[in-house]
Structures are given as structure tokens and as C-alpha cells.
Amino acid sequence: MSRSPQLGYNHNIPHRGRLYHVQTEDSGVDKAHIFTHAFYDGTIIASNKVSYDPEAGVEDLDQHIIGLMQESHKAMIRSLRRGEFDEKIVKYIGEHPEAPKDGGAPKQAAPAAKEQQDRRPERRPVPEPREVERQGPPMTPGHPGPTVDPTLTHPAFSSREAQAQVAASAGGQGPKRPSRGPSRVRRRAIGGIGGRGVKADQAQKSKIGERRDVVVGKFASEHQAQLDDEILALLREE
């Protein structure tokens, strides 16, 4: 009988505009517990604990534990997809980006809160005009305003070399500006390290719930292939 815990399951499950992570782990026969959690961005949405008897008279204890893990894992996914955790998600994370599949409209804001949003913020009253001190003599028609003395300039711009460069640039004979680089740069395809990535048209045509590379977790146990197919079928049905 194996004393090490069974390898767990990890899947990314789409639900109402977000991608949640469902994880199931075995604590080993010494503690004899199975834990399943649903996460979003590090926040636990729901948890489930299953206990088993390591001394149970079963033909293959390892397969018995694996079966319990898979059932707990799929039950958590079904509960998430059916909206059983929606209120808790709104409380701890925020409103769902998408409406439920049954066509129900998202909850409307309370009338008082909506009225508060529509109300324009109060502004300070416009100050009364006041007398200001006159700054210099008034301007009169036909007389130009104050100008900057052209003799007062930076020494760097008054040198003959600088003036020659300015004149050459004005005549289109100055030095060319540095190149901004090649106009066409070949970009690496989107995707993982060493991967060819996913084309934009494929990403638009394929639903996220049908993409094995998104739903299936990074770390997979040797007996997870069949479970992956079952979960993908589950997502297509709901």
C-alpha cells in the first residue's frame, strides 16, 4: 500500500467572464483527507473536505482514493458552473463581468445608490471679482508689446558653428536624424516558452471552455487524461 499522497488535479474553469482555478489534493493515508478548493487570484471561493478510511476493505486503496478525488473535483466544478458560489464571489471579489447563462439580468443597484451616482457633485461658488494691481503700462493700439532683447541669448547659440548648423538645417542640408530602427519588426508568436502560440483568428473562434491548453492545469498526474476529457465534456454540456 502506497504511503505517499496521490498526485492532485488542477483545472482552470471559466465562469461568467472569469477564469477560476479548481485544485484537489490528497493529504496521504496518515491523515486520510482529500481537499478541493476553488480559487480566484489567490482568494479561496469554496472548499470541500472528504475523509476516507485507509483501513477500508477495498481491493485497491489507491484507485479508491483516486475515485474519491475525481468525484470531489468534478462536484466542485459543477457547483461553480451552476452559480452556487456566485453570491460569495460578488461579496469577496466583485460583480461578475458576464450575466448568467439563463439570461437573468445582473442585480440592479439600489435606487438610493443610483440616485447618488446620478447627482452632480457640488461645486464651490464662483468668487466675486476683485481689484488687481496693474502690472506695467497698458497696451495701446499701434504699439507692440514688450519683446525679448535679441542680444540676450545663450552663448552656445550665439557661436558661428551653431548658427551655421541652424542655417543648414533650415535649408535642408543639415545632418540626418538618427534612424528609429527597422519599420517592420518580426514579433514572436504569442504563447508559452518555445511555443508557436495561438493565432488571433483561432482565439476568437474557439471558446475558452473548449480549449484544453487553458482548462487543463500545468501539473497533471498520470491518471488525469481521462478526467481531463470528462471535464471538457462537462463544460460543453452546461
Automatic annotation (TrEMBL):
<feature type="compositionally biased region" description="Basic and acidic residues">
    <location>
        <begin position="115"/>
        <end position="134"/>
    </location>
</feature>
<feature type="region of interest" description="Disordered">
    <location>
        <begin position="96"/>
        <end position="209"/>
    </location>
</feature>
<feature type="compositionally biased region" description="Basic residues">
    <location>
        <begin position="177"/>
        <end position="189"/>
    </location>
</feature>
<protein>
    <submittedName>
        <fullName>Uncharacterized protein</fullName>
    </submittedName>
</protein>
<feature type="compositionally biased region" description="Basic and acidic residues">
    <location>
        <begin position="198"/>
        <end position="209"/>
    </location>
</feature>
<feature type="compositionally biased region" description="Low complexity">
    <location>
        <begin position="102"/>
        <end position="114"/>
    </location>
</feature>
